[in-house]
Amino acid sequence: MGQNYRGRMYKTFIVHMAWLVRGLWKVARQLLDEFTTSKINIYGSDFEADILKVVDEANLEIKYGGKLPNKEGDYFPP
Predict the structure, then answer these.
(1) Which DSSP symbol is given to 61?
(2) CA distances (Å), origin 9, targets 6, 19, 40, 47
(3) Average pLDDT in the 52-76 region?
(4) What does residue 24 show for φ and ψ, rounded to 5 degrees?
(5) What is the C-alpha separation between 12 and 75, in angstroms, rounded?
(6) Banded model confidence at residue 6, pLDDT cuts 50, 70, 90
(7) 3-state helix, strand, coil in the chain (%, to 5)
């Protein structure tokens, strides 16, 4: 699927991930091509600077380092 739709995903940020999963990702990323792995970013903490390079802080929730109020309810799925 990645060969046919290579440009679909710009970046993915996975934050607050456990150290075990981050370690498994370091192993699994060896099986994927460099184009795909450059789009996937997995962080435990200290991710705000990288996200703010891609997303303006006016469009990002406070819990991710932005200025938008945190959305804590009234969203789908419940």
Answers:
(1) B
(2) 8, 25, 9, 19
(3) 88
(4) -65, -35
(5) 20
(6) low
(7) 40, 10, 50
On whether the CB atoms of residues 67 and 73 are closer than 8 A, the answer is no
Residues above pLDDT 90, as percent of the chain? 49
Please, is 2 exposed, middle or buried when counting C-beta atoms within 10 Å of its C-beta (0-12, 13-18, 19+)?
Answer: exposed
Q: 33 or 78, which is more confident?
A: 33
User: Looking at the DSSP assignment, which residues form a beta bridge with residue 13?
Assistant: 41
**Cβ 57 vs Cβ 65: under 8 Å:** yes
Over residues 18-22, mean pLDDT? 93
Question: pTM score > 0.85 for this model?
Answer: no
DSSP 29: G
